[in-house]
Amino acid sequence: MQLKTGIQRGVTLAVTALLGVQAGQNVLAEEKQWDFDSVLFTYMEGDSRVSDVSLRLEAVRSGETEEQLTLGLSVDALSGASPSGAIPTHTPQTVTTPSGNTNVYAAELPLNSFTDRRIAGQAAYLFPLGDQNRLNTGFTLSQEDDYRHAGVNASFSQDFFDRNTTISAGFGLSADSIDPVDGIPLALSNSDLGSTTTSAENKNVTDLLFGVTQILSPRSLVQLNYGYSSATGYLNDPYKIISQVNSNGVVQSNLYENRPDSRAGHNLYGAIKFDNQGDVTTFSYRYHSDDWDISSSTFDLRHRLSLGENGHYIEPHLRFYNQSAADFYRLQLPDSEAVPTHISADYRLAKFSAITLGFRYGIKGPWGNDWRINLEYYQQNPSDNTSDYIDQAGLDLNPGVSALIFSIGARF
Amino acid sequence: MKYNILLLPVLLLLGGCASLNERISQTAADSVTAATETLTSVKPWQRGALAQPEMQFGYLSLDASIDDHIYFSKEATSGGRSFAGGGCGCN
Questions:
Q1: Which domains does chain A have, with CATH numbers?
Q2: Chain A interface, mutation test: which of B52, B56, B62, most A Cβ atoms within 10 Å?
Q3: The sheet that has A333-334: what strands, in order across it?
Q4: Number of independent structural domains in chain B
Q5: Is residue B44 part of a domain?
Q6: Do A288 and B44 touch (CB under 8 A)?
Q7: Predicted confidence (pLDDT) at residue A293 exceeds the cutoff of 80
Q8: What is the residue range of B14's domain?
Q9: What is the dihedral of CA B20, B22, B26, B27, to 10 degrees?
Protein backbone atom coordinates (compact mmCIF):
# COMPACT_ATOMS: atom_id res chain seq x y z
CA MET A 1 0.00 0.00 0.00
CA GLN A 2 1.38 3.40 -1.03
CA LEU A 3 0.46 5.08 2.24
CA LYS A 4 2.20 2.36 4.23
CA THR A 5 5.30 2.74 2.07
CA GLY A 6 5.31 6.47 2.72
CA ILE A 7 4.99 5.94 6.46
CA GLN A 8 7.71 3.31 6.37
CA ARG A 9 10.05 5.63 4.48
CA GLY A 10 9.53 8.36 7.07
CA VAL A 11 9.87 6.06 10.04
CA THR A 12 12.83 4.31 8.42
CA LEU A 13 14.76 7.55 8.17
CA ALA A 14 13.75 8.65 11.69
CA VAL A 15 14.56 5.37 13.40
CA THR A 16 17.77 4.65 11.53
CA ALA A 17 18.94 8.16 12.36
CA LEU A 18 17.96 7.60 16.00
CA LEU A 19 19.80 4.29 16.08
CA GLY A 20 22.86 5.74 14.38
CA VAL A 21 22.47 3.68 11.23
CA GLN A 22 23.67 5.40 8.07
CA ALA A 23 22.06 3.00 5.65
CA GLY A 24 18.51 4.34 5.61
CA GLN A 25 18.51 5.63 2.05
CA ASN A 26 20.65 2.75 0.75
CA VAL A 27 18.22 0.32 2.30
CA LEU A 28 15.34 1.88 0.44
CA ALA A 29 17.35 1.91 -2.79
CA GLU A 30 17.99 -1.83 -2.39
CA GLU A 31 14.26 -2.36 -1.79
CA LYS A 32 14.87 -3.97 1.53
CA GLN A 33 11.85 -4.14 3.78
CA TRP A 34 11.96 -2.33 7.11
CA ASP A 35 9.41 -3.17 9.77
CA PHE A 36 9.09 -1.25 13.01
CA ASP A 37 7.61 -2.04 16.34
CA SER A 38 7.29 0.29 19.31
CA VAL A 39 5.85 -0.01 22.81
CA LEU A 40 5.29 2.62 25.46
CA PHE A 41 4.56 1.08 28.82
CA THR A 42 4.08 2.00 32.45
CA TYR A 43 4.73 -0.27 35.40
CA MET A 44 3.30 0.72 38.77
CA GLU A 45 3.62 -1.23 42.00
CA GLY A 46 1.06 -0.97 44.78
CA ASP A 47 1.76 1.00 47.98
CA SER A 48 3.61 3.64 45.92
CA ARG A 49 6.66 1.45 45.48
CA VAL A 50 8.51 1.09 42.16
CA SER A 51 7.21 2.83 39.05
CA ASP A 52 8.71 2.66 35.58
CA VAL A 53 7.91 4.50 32.37
CA SER A 54 9.55 2.90 29.37
CA LEU A 55 9.78 3.28 25.60
CA ARG A 56 10.92 0.34 23.45
CA LEU A 57 11.71 0.52 19.74
CA GLU A 58 12.59 -2.26 17.35
CA ALA A 59 13.50 -2.09 13.67
CA VAL A 60 13.80 -5.20 11.50
CA ARG A 61 15.27 -5.16 8.00
CA SER A 62 14.55 -8.18 5.84
CA GLY A 63 14.79 -8.98 2.15
CA GLU A 64 13.97 -11.79 -0.22
CA THR A 65 16.51 -14.06 1.45
CA GLU A 66 16.41 -15.07 5.11
CA GLU A 67 19.00 -12.38 5.89
CA GLN A 68 17.70 -10.14 8.63
CA LEU A 69 18.98 -7.24 10.74
CA THR A 70 17.25 -6.37 14.01
CA LEU A 71 18.00 -3.20 15.97
CA GLY A 72 16.48 -2.39 19.35
CA LEU A 73 16.52 0.53 21.75
CA SER A 74 14.85 0.97 25.11
CA VAL A 75 14.77 3.81 27.62
CA ASP A 76 13.45 3.50 31.18
CA ALA A 77 12.83 6.08 33.90
CA LEU A 78 12.47 4.38 37.29
CA SER A 79 11.58 5.82 40.67
CA GLY A 80 10.00 4.84 43.95
CA ALA A 81 11.09 2.50 46.71
CA SER A 82 11.84 -1.17 47.19
CA PRO A 83 12.10 -3.26 50.37
CA SER A 84 15.55 -3.01 51.95
CA GLY A 85 15.32 -6.44 53.54
CA ALA A 86 15.05 -5.02 57.09
CA ILE A 87 12.22 -6.51 59.13
CA PRO A 88 9.21 -4.38 60.21
CA THR A 89 8.68 -4.11 63.99
CA HIS A 90 6.26 -2.35 66.33
CA THR A 91 9.18 -0.71 68.14
CA PRO A 92 10.26 2.31 66.08
CA GLN A 93 13.59 1.60 64.39
CA THR A 94 16.08 3.73 62.54
CA VAL A 95 17.34 2.27 59.27
CA THR A 96 20.35 3.74 57.47
CA THR A 97 20.14 3.67 53.69
CA PRO A 98 23.19 2.93 51.51
CA SER A 99 23.49 6.65 50.76
CA GLY A 100 23.74 7.42 54.50
CA ASN A 101 20.23 8.76 55.07
CA THR A 102 18.31 7.56 58.11
CA ASN A 103 14.61 6.80 58.23
CA VAL A 104 12.45 5.83 61.20
CA TYR A 105 9.91 3.03 60.73
CA ALA A 106 7.27 1.74 63.13
CA ALA A 107 5.03 -1.19 62.17
CA GLU A 108 5.83 -0.69 58.49
CA LEU A 109 8.18 -2.23 55.95
CA PRO A 110 11.56 -0.40 55.71
CA LEU A 111 12.16 0.74 52.12
CA ASN A 112 15.02 2.11 50.02
CA SER A 113 14.01 5.10 47.89
CA PHE A 114 15.69 5.51 44.54
CA THR A 115 15.57 7.05 41.10
CA ASP A 116 17.31 5.46 38.14
CA ARG A 117 17.53 5.68 34.38
CA ARG A 118 18.24 2.82 32.04
CA ILE A 119 19.11 2.89 28.37
CA ALA A 120 19.66 -0.34 26.48
CA GLY A 121 20.47 -1.18 22.89
CA GLN A 122 20.75 -4.40 20.96
CA ALA A 123 21.51 -5.57 17.47
CA ALA A 124 21.15 -8.97 15.86
CA TYR A 125 22.04 -10.22 12.41
CA LEU A 126 20.71 -13.41 10.86
CA PHE A 127 22.97 -14.94 8.20
CA PRO A 128 21.62 -17.66 5.95
CA LEU A 129 24.46 -20.16 5.55
CA GLY A 130 22.62 -22.49 3.20
CA ASP A 131 19.10 -23.44 2.24
CA GLN A 132 18.55 -25.29 5.49
CA ASN A 133 20.72 -23.57 8.07
CA ARG A 134 21.54 -20.12 9.42
CA LEU A 135 23.60 -18.28 11.98
CA ASN A 136 22.19 -15.60 14.27
CA THR A 137 24.57 -13.24 16.05
CA GLY A 138 23.86 -10.36 18.35
CA PHE A 139 25.06 -8.04 21.04
CA THR A 140 23.38 -6.19 23.90
CA LEU A 141 24.38 -3.13 25.89
CA SER A 142 22.71 -1.37 28.80
CA GLN A 143 23.59 1.45 31.13
CA GLU A 144 22.03 2.48 34.43
CA ASP A 145 23.23 5.01 36.99
CA ASP A 146 24.89 2.19 38.93
CA TYR A 147 25.01 -0.76 36.52
CA ARG A 148 26.49 -1.50 33.10
CA HIS A 149 25.97 -4.54 30.90
CA ALA A 150 27.57 -5.77 27.70
CA GLY A 151 26.79 -9.09 26.07
CA VAL A 152 27.25 -11.06 22.87
CA ASN A 153 25.39 -14.11 21.65
CA ALA A 154 25.36 -16.47 18.68
CA SER A 155 23.22 -19.40 17.67
CA PHE A 156 23.15 -21.85 14.79
CA SER A 157 19.98 -23.49 13.52
CA GLN A 158 19.49 -26.34 11.06
CA ASP A 159 16.29 -27.51 9.36
CA PHE A 160 15.45 -31.16 8.76
CA PHE A 161 12.69 -33.21 7.14
CA ASP A 162 11.47 -30.64 4.64
CA ARG A 163 11.68 -27.94 7.35
CA ASN A 164 9.30 -29.79 9.63
CA THR A 165 12.02 -29.89 12.28
CA THR A 166 14.54 -27.21 13.29
CA ILE A 167 17.23 -27.67 15.86
CA SER A 168 19.35 -24.86 17.26
CA ALA A 169 22.31 -24.40 19.56
CA GLY A 170 23.72 -21.16 20.88
CA PHE A 171 25.62 -19.38 23.57
CA GLY A 172 25.59 -15.99 25.24
CA LEU A 173 28.31 -14.20 27.19
CA SER A 174 27.83 -11.10 29.27
CA ALA A 175 30.05 -8.91 31.41
CA ASP A 176 28.33 -6.61 33.90
CA SER A 177 29.70 -3.95 36.21
CA ILE A 178 28.00 -2.89 39.46
CA ASP A 179 28.94 0.59 40.60
CA PRO A 180 26.72 1.94 43.42
CA VAL A 181 26.87 5.67 43.99
CA ASP A 182 28.19 5.19 47.52
CA GLY A 183 30.48 2.27 46.75
CA ILE A 184 30.16 -1.47 47.28
CA PRO A 185 29.21 -2.16 50.92
CA LEU A 186 31.32 -4.56 52.95
CA ALA A 187 29.37 -7.83 53.02
CA LEU A 188 27.90 -8.77 56.42
CA SER A 189 28.99 -5.44 57.96
CA ASN A 190 26.65 -3.31 60.05
CA SER A 191 24.79 -1.05 57.62
CA ASP A 192 24.68 1.77 60.20
CA LEU A 193 28.47 2.04 59.99
CA GLY A 194 28.47 2.41 56.21
CA SER A 195 31.67 0.47 55.48
CA THR A 196 32.53 0.18 51.81
CA THR A 197 35.16 -1.78 49.94
CA THR A 198 35.85 -1.17 46.25
CA SER A 199 33.97 1.31 44.13
CA ALA A 200 32.79 -1.29 41.61
CA GLU A 201 32.44 -5.05 41.18
CA ASN A 202 31.98 -7.30 38.18
CA LYS A 203 29.70 -10.15 37.21
CA ASN A 204 30.06 -12.54 34.26
CA VAL A 205 27.32 -14.76 32.88
CA THR A 206 27.57 -17.63 30.38
CA ASP A 207 24.42 -19.03 28.82
CA LEU A 208 23.99 -22.11 26.65
CA LEU A 209 20.73 -22.75 24.83
CA PHE A 210 19.69 -25.82 22.83
CA GLY A 211 16.32 -26.07 21.17
CA VAL A 212 14.13 -28.01 18.78
CA THR A 213 11.02 -26.77 16.99
CA GLN A 214 8.70 -29.36 15.45
CA ILE A 215 5.68 -28.86 13.22
CA LEU A 216 3.00 -31.19 14.53
CA SER A 217 0.30 -30.59 11.96
CA PRO A 218 -0.77 -27.87 9.48
CA ARG A 219 -2.20 -26.07 12.51
CA SER A 220 0.15 -26.74 15.40
CA LEU A 221 3.82 -26.68 16.34
CA VAL A 222 5.88 -27.24 19.45
CA GLN A 223 9.18 -25.89 20.81
CA LEU A 224 11.45 -27.48 23.42
CA ASN A 225 14.50 -25.73 24.88
CA TYR A 226 17.18 -26.63 27.37
CA GLY A 227 19.20 -23.79 28.85
CA TYR A 228 22.20 -23.71 31.14
CA SER A 229 23.33 -20.54 32.83
CA SER A 230 26.42 -19.87 34.94
CA ALA A 231 27.03 -16.59 36.76
CA THR A 232 30.22 -15.73 38.61
CA GLY A 233 31.52 -12.69 40.45
CA TYR A 234 29.58 -10.16 42.50
CA LEU A 235 26.05 -11.54 42.80
CA ASN A 236 24.97 -9.52 45.87
CA ASP A 237 22.40 -6.77 45.75
CA PRO A 238 24.44 -3.90 47.26
CA TYR A 239 21.30 -2.24 48.64
CA LYS A 240 19.88 -5.20 50.56
CA ILE A 241 20.28 -5.76 54.29
CA ILE A 242 19.04 -8.28 56.86
CA SER A 243 17.94 -7.61 60.43
CA GLN A 244 19.46 -9.18 63.55
CA VAL A 245 16.77 -9.36 66.23
CA ASN A 246 16.64 -10.16 69.93
CA SER A 247 14.37 -12.72 71.59
CA ASN A 248 11.40 -10.32 71.36
CA GLY A 249 11.98 -9.62 67.68
CA VAL A 250 13.34 -6.10 68.24
CA VAL A 251 15.98 -5.15 65.70
CA GLN A 252 19.48 -4.89 67.19
CA SER A 253 21.36 -4.20 63.97
CA ASN A 254 21.12 -4.58 60.21
CA LEU A 255 23.80 -6.34 58.17
CA TYR A 256 24.57 -6.09 54.46
CA GLU A 257 23.68 -9.32 52.71
CA ASN A 258 26.20 -11.76 51.23
CA ARG A 259 25.42 -14.28 48.48
CA PRO A 260 27.65 -16.96 46.96
CA ASP A 261 29.92 -15.69 44.19
CA SER A 262 28.68 -18.25 41.69
CA ARG A 263 25.37 -19.64 40.53
CA ALA A 264 24.63 -22.34 37.96
CA GLY A 265 21.14 -23.22 36.84
CA HIS A 266 19.16 -25.26 34.33
CA ASN A 267 15.98 -24.41 32.45
CA LEU A 268 13.66 -26.78 30.63
CA TYR A 269 11.16 -24.89 28.50
CA GLY A 270 8.36 -26.12 26.30
CA ALA A 271 5.81 -24.18 24.25
CA ILE A 272 3.02 -25.23 21.93
CA LYS A 273 0.86 -23.26 19.52
CA PHE A 274 -2.47 -24.20 17.98
CA ASP A 275 -4.29 -22.43 15.19
CA ASN A 276 -8.04 -22.75 15.20
CA GLN A 277 -9.35 -21.05 12.06
CA GLY A 278 -7.47 -17.85 12.83
CA ASP A 279 -7.61 -18.07 16.62
CA VAL A 280 -4.28 -18.96 18.21
CA THR A 281 -3.66 -20.64 21.56
CA THR A 282 -0.14 -20.58 23.03
CA PHE A 283 0.81 -22.51 26.13
CA SER A 284 4.25 -22.73 27.68
CA TYR A 285 5.84 -24.29 30.75
CA ARG A 286 9.30 -23.71 32.23
CA TYR A 287 11.05 -25.65 34.96
CA HIS A 288 14.11 -24.13 36.61
CA SER A 289 16.60 -25.62 39.06
CA ASP A 290 19.90 -24.21 40.32
CA ASP A 291 22.64 -24.66 42.91
CA TRP A 292 21.16 -21.97 45.17
CA ASP A 293 18.48 -24.61 45.77
CA ILE A 294 15.89 -22.54 43.95
CA SER A 295 13.45 -24.39 41.75
CA SER A 296 10.53 -22.84 39.94
CA SER A 297 7.65 -23.68 37.62
CA THR A 298 6.06 -21.21 35.23
CA PHE A 299 2.82 -21.84 33.35
CA ASP A 300 1.77 -19.36 30.68
CA LEU A 301 -1.41 -19.41 28.60
CA ARG A 302 -2.54 -16.99 25.91
CA HIS A 303 -5.49 -17.23 23.58
CA ARG A 304 -5.72 -14.83 20.66
CA LEU A 305 -9.29 -14.57 19.52
CA SER A 306 -9.89 -12.96 16.14
CA LEU A 307 -12.89 -10.64 16.02
CA GLY A 308 -13.35 -10.45 12.27
CA GLU A 309 -11.78 -9.63 8.94
CA ASN A 310 -10.67 -6.14 9.97
CA GLY A 311 -7.85 -7.39 12.17
CA HIS A 312 -9.45 -6.80 15.56
CA TYR A 313 -8.52 -9.35 18.18
CA ILE A 314 -8.52 -9.88 21.91
CA GLU A 315 -5.97 -11.95 23.80
CA PRO A 316 -6.51 -12.95 27.44
CA HIS A 317 -3.37 -13.99 29.29
CA LEU A 318 -2.88 -16.09 32.39
CA ARG A 319 0.50 -16.82 34.02
CA PHE A 320 1.23 -18.78 37.17
CA TYR A 321 4.66 -18.85 38.80
CA ASN A 322 5.91 -20.73 41.84
CA GLN A 323 9.44 -20.76 43.32
CA SER A 324 11.18 -22.23 46.34
CA ALA A 325 13.51 -20.16 48.53
CA ALA A 326 17.28 -19.87 48.11
CA ASP A 327 19.06 -22.01 50.69
CA PHE A 328 20.65 -18.88 52.24
CA TYR A 329 17.41 -16.86 52.37
CA ARG A 330 16.27 -15.83 55.84
CA LEU A 331 13.49 -13.47 56.80
CA GLN A 332 15.64 -12.27 59.72
CA LEU A 333 18.47 -13.54 61.93
CA PRO A 334 18.30 -14.05 65.74
CA ASP A 335 21.23 -12.22 67.37
CA SER A 336 21.93 -15.35 69.41
CA GLU A 337 22.87 -17.16 66.19
CA ALA A 338 26.26 -16.94 64.48
CA VAL A 339 26.11 -15.01 61.23
CA PRO A 340 26.28 -17.48 58.32
CA THR A 341 28.71 -16.92 55.46
CA HIS A 342 25.88 -16.48 52.98
CA ILE A 343 22.63 -14.80 53.94
CA SER A 344 20.01 -12.60 52.29
CA ALA A 345 16.54 -11.30 53.14
CA ASP A 346 15.80 -10.19 49.57
CA TYR A 347 12.10 -10.95 49.07
CA ARG A 348 12.87 -12.13 45.51
CA LEU A 349 14.80 -15.09 46.96
CA ALA A 350 11.90 -16.13 49.24
CA LYS A 351 9.41 -18.88 48.60
CA PHE A 352 6.37 -17.46 46.83
CA SER A 353 3.87 -17.93 44.08
CA ALA A 354 2.73 -15.26 41.65
CA ILE A 355 -0.12 -14.83 39.24
CA THR A 356 -0.49 -12.56 36.22
CA LEU A 357 -3.83 -11.75 34.63
CA GLY A 358 -3.66 -9.87 31.38
CA PHE A 359 -5.72 -8.73 28.46
CA ARG A 360 -4.62 -7.45 25.05
CA TYR A 361 -6.72 -5.77 22.39
CA GLY A 362 -5.39 -5.32 18.89
CA ILE A 363 -6.64 -3.44 15.87
CA LYS A 364 -5.41 -2.89 12.34
CA GLY A 365 -4.87 0.76 11.44
CA PRO A 366 -6.08 2.35 8.19
CA TRP A 367 -2.60 2.44 6.58
CA GLY A 368 -1.44 -1.12 7.08
CA ASN A 369 -0.09 -0.51 10.57
CA ASP A 370 -1.49 -2.23 13.64
CA TRP A 371 -1.99 -1.13 17.22
CA ARG A 372 -2.39 -2.98 20.48
CA ILE A 373 -3.04 -2.13 24.09
CA ASN A 374 -2.18 -4.43 26.92
CA LEU A 375 -3.21 -4.37 30.56
CA GLU A 376 -1.78 -6.79 33.12
CA TYR A 377 -2.02 -7.27 36.85
CA TYR A 378 0.77 -9.08 38.72
CA GLN A 379 0.50 -10.33 42.30
CA GLN A 380 3.10 -12.12 44.42
CA ASN A 381 2.02 -14.26 47.36
CA PRO A 382 4.93 -15.02 49.74
CA SER A 383 4.69 -18.15 51.88
CA ASP A 384 6.81 -16.97 54.82
CA ASN A 385 5.62 -13.61 56.12
CA THR A 386 4.89 -13.99 59.85
CA SER A 387 6.86 -14.76 63.01
CA ASP A 388 6.23 -15.64 66.66
CA TYR A 389 8.15 -12.65 67.97
CA ILE A 390 6.13 -10.35 70.25
CA ASP A 391 7.43 -7.18 68.62
CA GLN A 392 6.33 -8.39 65.18
CA ALA A 393 2.89 -9.70 66.11
CA GLY A 394 0.27 -9.04 63.48
CA LEU A 395 2.72 -7.49 61.01
CA ASP A 396 3.10 -8.62 57.41
CA LEU A 397 6.84 -9.25 57.27
CA ASN A 398 6.95 -9.86 53.53
CA PRO A 399 3.96 -8.41 51.70
CA GLY A 400 5.29 -9.37 48.26
CA VAL A 401 4.60 -7.22 45.23
CA SER A 402 1.51 -6.23 43.29
CA ALA A 403 1.85 -4.29 40.06
CA LEU A 404 -0.25 -2.90 37.25
CA ILE A 405 1.32 -2.85 33.77
CA PHE A 406 -0.20 -0.90 30.89
CA SER A 407 1.28 -0.67 27.43
CA ILE A 408 0.39 0.62 24.01
CA GLY A 409 2.20 -0.73 20.98
CA ALA A 410 2.28 0.06 17.27
CA ARG A 411 3.82 -1.77 14.32
CA PHE A 412 4.48 -0.21 10.92
CA MET B 1 -9.67 -33.49 27.53
CA LYS B 2 -6.73 -31.76 29.16
CA TYR B 3 -6.73 -28.91 26.65
CA ASN B 4 -10.21 -27.96 27.75
CA ILE B 5 -8.79 -27.70 31.26
CA LEU B 6 -6.03 -25.43 30.00
CA LEU B 7 -8.59 -23.21 28.34
CA LEU B 8 -10.80 -23.02 31.42
CA PRO B 9 -9.17 -19.83 32.76
CA VAL B 10 -9.76 -18.17 29.40
CA LEU B 11 -13.37 -19.18 29.56
CA LEU B 12 -13.61 -17.70 33.02
CA LEU B 13 -11.94 -14.48 31.90
CA LEU B 14 -14.47 -14.11 29.15
CA GLY B 15 -17.39 -15.18 31.26
CA GLY B 16 -20.57 -13.31 30.44
CA CYS B 17 -19.87 -13.08 26.73
CA ALA B 18 -22.25 -15.75 25.49
CA SER B 19 -21.20 -15.61 21.84
CA LEU B 20 -17.56 -15.69 22.77
CA ASN B 21 -18.08 -18.63 25.09
CA GLU B 22 -19.74 -20.58 22.30
CA ARG B 23 -16.85 -19.78 20.01
CA ILE B 24 -14.25 -20.71 22.59
CA SER B 25 -15.93 -24.06 23.13
CA GLN B 26 -15.49 -24.69 19.42
CA THR B 27 -11.90 -23.49 19.74
CA ALA B 28 -11.21 -25.97 22.53
CA ALA B 29 -12.54 -28.81 20.43
CA ASP B 30 -10.44 -27.69 17.46
CA SER B 31 -7.35 -27.56 19.68
CA VAL B 32 -7.81 -31.16 20.69
CA THR B 33 -8.29 -32.16 17.06
CA ALA B 34 -5.15 -30.29 15.99
CA ALA B 35 -3.10 -31.87 18.75
CA THR B 36 -4.16 -35.37 17.91
CA GLU B 37 -3.60 -35.20 14.17
CA THR B 38 -1.04 -37.69 12.99
CA LEU B 39 2.54 -36.43 13.20
CA THR B 40 3.34 -36.62 9.52
CA SER B 41 5.46 -34.41 7.32
CA VAL B 42 3.59 -31.18 6.61
CA LYS B 43 4.21 -30.00 3.06
CA PRO B 44 5.00 -26.36 2.28
CA TRP B 45 1.63 -25.84 0.61
CA GLN B 46 -0.09 -27.00 3.79
CA ARG B 47 1.49 -24.31 5.93
CA GLY B 48 -0.81 -21.37 5.31
CA ALA B 49 -1.89 -21.22 8.94
CA LEU B 50 1.64 -21.82 10.25
CA ALA B 51 2.95 -18.93 8.14
CA GLN B 52 0.80 -16.38 9.97
CA PRO B 53 2.85 -14.02 12.19
CA GLU B 54 0.87 -14.94 15.30
CA MET B 55 1.86 -18.60 14.81
CA GLN B 56 5.58 -17.77 15.13
CA PHE B 57 7.20 -18.33 18.53
CA GLY B 58 8.87 -14.93 18.21
CA TYR B 59 5.58 -13.09 17.60
CA LEU B 60 5.41 -9.70 19.37
CA SER B 61 8.95 -10.20 20.63
CA LEU B 62 9.06 -6.66 21.97
CA ASP B 63 6.15 -7.38 24.33
CA ALA B 64 7.75 -10.67 25.34
CA SER B 65 11.04 -8.94 26.14
CA ILE B 66 9.20 -6.44 28.36
CA ASP B 67 7.53 -9.29 30.24
CA ASP B 68 10.87 -11.07 30.61
CA HIS B 69 12.49 -7.93 31.99
CA ILE B 70 9.74 -7.39 34.57
CA TYR B 71 9.86 -10.99 35.78
CA PHE B 72 13.68 -10.93 35.78
CA SER B 73 13.43 -7.93 38.12
CA LYS B 74 10.90 -9.43 40.52
CA GLU B 75 11.58 -13.17 40.57
CA ALA B 76 14.63 -15.33 41.30
CA THR B 77 14.55 -17.33 38.06
CA SER B 78 14.41 -16.30 34.40
CA GLY B 79 15.21 -17.39 30.86
CA GLY B 80 14.14 -20.49 29.00
CA ARG B 81 12.56 -18.90 25.94
CA SER B 82 15.67 -17.18 24.58
CA PHE B 83 18.81 -15.29 25.54
CA ALA B 84 18.37 -12.40 27.95
CA GLY B 85 18.09 -9.02 26.27
CA GLY B 86 20.40 -7.21 28.69
CA GLY B 87 21.28 -7.31 32.36
CA CYS B 88 20.10 -4.89 34.99
CA GLY B 89 20.67 -4.00 38.61
CA CYS B 90 16.96 -4.25 39.09
CA ASN B 91 15.25 -2.69 42.10
A1: 32-411 (2.40.160.40)
A2: B62
A3: A251-256, A241-245, A333-334
A4: 1
A5: no
A6: no
A7: yes
A8: 2-37+54-74
A9: 20
